[in-house]
Amino acid sequence: QWEINYTNLQSADRTKLESLWNAVDGRRYSFTFSPDGGTTDYTVRFNEDELKFIQTTYNIYSVSFTITQEV
Questions:
Q1: Which sign, positive or negative, has the C-alpha torsion 60, 31, 37, 19?
Q2: How far apart are CA 12 and CA 18, in angstroms?
Q3: Cβ distance 67 to 6 under 8 Å?
Q4: End-to-end C-alpha distance for the chain, whole angstroms
Q5: Mean pLDDT computed over 48-54
Q6: Taking the C-alpha atoms of 10, 16, 18 and 21 in order, what is their torsion angle to the nearest 10 degrees?
Q7: CA-based angle 53:14:51, to the nearest 5?
Q8: CA separation for the pair 6, 70 (Å, rounded)
Q9: Interacting residues of 52 by C-beta distance below 8 A, sequence separation 6+
Q10: Collapsing DSSP states into helix, strand and coil, what is residue 17?
Protein backbone atom coordinates (compact mmCIF):
# COMPACT_ATOMS: atom_id res chain seq x y z
CA GLN A 1 0.00 0.00 0.00
CA TRP A 2 1.28 3.47 -0.90
CA GLU A 3 0.12 6.84 0.34
CA ILE A 4 0.61 9.40 -2.40
CA ASN A 5 0.74 13.11 -1.56
CA TYR A 6 1.15 15.72 -4.24
CA THR A 7 1.67 19.36 -3.35
CA ASN A 8 2.29 22.13 -5.86
CA LEU A 9 0.66 20.03 -8.57
CA GLN A 10 0.31 22.07 -11.75
CA SER A 11 -2.97 22.15 -13.64
CA ALA A 12 -1.57 19.99 -16.49
CA ASP A 13 -0.48 17.31 -14.00
CA ARG A 14 -3.88 17.43 -12.31
CA THR A 15 -5.44 16.76 -15.71
CA LYS A 16 -3.15 13.73 -16.21
CA LEU A 17 -4.08 12.31 -12.81
CA GLU A 18 -7.79 12.88 -13.49
CA SER A 19 -7.37 11.14 -16.86
CA LEU A 20 -5.89 8.09 -15.13
CA TRP A 21 -8.72 8.15 -12.57
CA ASN A 22 -11.30 8.26 -15.37
CA ALA A 23 -9.54 5.56 -17.42
CA VAL A 24 -9.65 3.08 -14.52
CA ASP A 25 -13.10 4.26 -13.41
CA GLY A 26 -11.89 5.27 -9.96
CA ARG A 27 -11.59 2.16 -7.81
CA ARG A 28 -13.08 -0.19 -10.39
CA TYR A 29 -10.05 -1.21 -12.46
CA SER A 30 -6.39 -1.71 -11.66
CA PHE A 31 -3.39 -0.01 -13.25
CA THR A 32 0.39 -0.39 -13.24
CA PHE A 33 2.38 1.63 -10.70
CA SER A 34 6.17 1.89 -10.59
CA PRO A 35 7.46 3.56 -7.41
CA ASP A 36 11.07 3.45 -8.57
CA GLY A 37 10.70 4.86 -12.06
CA GLY A 38 10.29 1.66 -14.04
CA THR A 39 12.47 -1.04 -12.48
CA THR A 40 9.63 -2.63 -10.49
CA ASP A 41 5.96 -2.63 -11.48
CA TYR A 42 2.93 -3.33 -9.31
CA THR A 43 -0.71 -3.79 -10.23
CA VAL A 44 -2.66 -1.45 -7.96
CA ARG A 45 -6.06 0.16 -7.41
CA PHE A 46 -7.14 3.47 -5.93
CA ASN A 47 -8.66 3.17 -2.43
CA GLU A 48 -10.69 6.38 -2.46
CA ASP A 49 -14.16 6.92 -3.90
CA GLU A 50 -13.04 10.24 -5.38
CA LEU A 51 -9.97 12.41 -5.80
CA LYS A 52 -10.22 15.59 -3.75
CA PHE A 53 -8.05 18.37 -5.14
CA ILE A 54 -7.41 21.49 -3.10
CA GLN A 55 -6.43 24.60 -5.01
CA THR A 56 -3.55 26.21 -3.10
CA THR A 57 -2.94 29.07 -5.53
CA TYR A 58 -3.79 29.89 -9.13
CA ASN A 59 -3.56 26.63 -11.17
CA ILE A 60 -1.67 24.87 -8.35
CA TYR A 61 -3.27 22.00 -6.42
CA SER A 62 -2.63 19.44 -3.73
CA VAL A 63 -4.14 15.96 -3.50
CA SER A 64 -3.60 12.86 -1.37
CA PHE A 65 -4.75 9.32 -2.02
CA THR A 66 -3.86 5.71 -1.30
CA ILE A 67 -3.25 2.88 -3.75
CA THR A 68 -3.14 -0.79 -2.82
CA GLN A 69 -1.38 -3.66 -4.59
CA GLU A 70 -3.60 -6.32 -6.10
CA VAL A 71 -2.85 -9.84 -4.93
A1: negative
A2: 10
A3: no
A4: 11
A5: 96
A6: -140
A7: 40
A8: 23
A9: 63
A10: helix
